[in-house]
Amino acid sequence: MKKRIGIFGTSGMGREAGDVARACGIEPFYVARDEIEVAGWIGAGEVILEKEVGAYSHYPFVIGIGDNEIRRKVALRFEGKLDFSNLVHPSATFGYRQRKVINEAQGVIVAAGVRFTSNIAVESFVLFNQNATIAHDCVVEHFVHVAPGANISGNVHLRQGVWVGAGAVINQGDDKRRLTIGMNSVIGSGAVVTEDCEPNGIYVGVPAKRIK
Ligand SMILES: CC(C)(COP(=O)(O)OP(=O)(O)OC[C@H]1O[C@@H](n2cnc3c(N)ncnc32)[C@H](O)[C@@H]1OP(=O)(O)O)[C@@H](O)C(=O)NCCC(=O)NCCS
């Protein structure tokens, strides 16, 4: 029988997570919050309602929702009720023992072409989007989203809920002190971050400056 995985989210990120599942030979089905979301479905595959999820609880799930706060709320709502698995595209590459680190988390999605080098700590419900790179000795906390093509250099600490935009670069910290992006901060697309960022900020530009 074909393996299946439930994906919360029916928008772009959800469909992209479904494609990662298919690349792994796993058939995705999708979980919509309500009938309005079902009516807007443009993808391929079965869509169920969130209230029906109990009947599917023998399957693993991931949360294919790009918004860190919404993803956190879904994770909390179903904590202990569903088995949140990890979904890793076969084209992602990993340094020594790095794949094991991801396996020990839950709800992590790694899209096509992501590259991890060595000694990177990864917590749960993190999204690594296509072609992102994460270098040695980084720490990536819960509910982070790394958008396509972002480059996280060595010795960087992404605190919980950080959102790194497409093509952004985070410069390296050092082995005594990681460059740290504060909780829930957003790094704009194409930014180059050269120093620590405070929590709850929005940073853009080269070098990145706080705008909000
Ligand atoms: C950083 C970001 C979140 C800011 O969004 P916002 O809070 O709605 O900000 P605004 O659109 O009001 O822009 C505020 C100012 O910052 C500028 N700005 C916005 N994003 C910028 C960016 N990435 N780089 C440089 N400047 C940027 C705007 O031009 C505007 O400048 P102004 O005040 O001189 O007119 C958003 O622009 C962004 O970069 N998002 C990431 C997109 C992405 O990576 N998507 C991938 C999806 S997987």
From TrEMBL:
Acetyl-CoA binds at residue 145. InterPro entries: AcTrfase_PglD-like, PglD_N, Trans_hexapeptide_repeat, Trimer_LpxA-like_sf. The active site is at residue 136. The record marks 137 as: Increases basicity of active site His. Residues 4-75 form the PglD N-terminal domain. Coiled coil: none annotated. Substrate binds at residue 66. Belongs to the transferase hexapeptide repeat family. This is PglD N-terminal domain-containing protein. It comes from Kineobactrum sediminis.
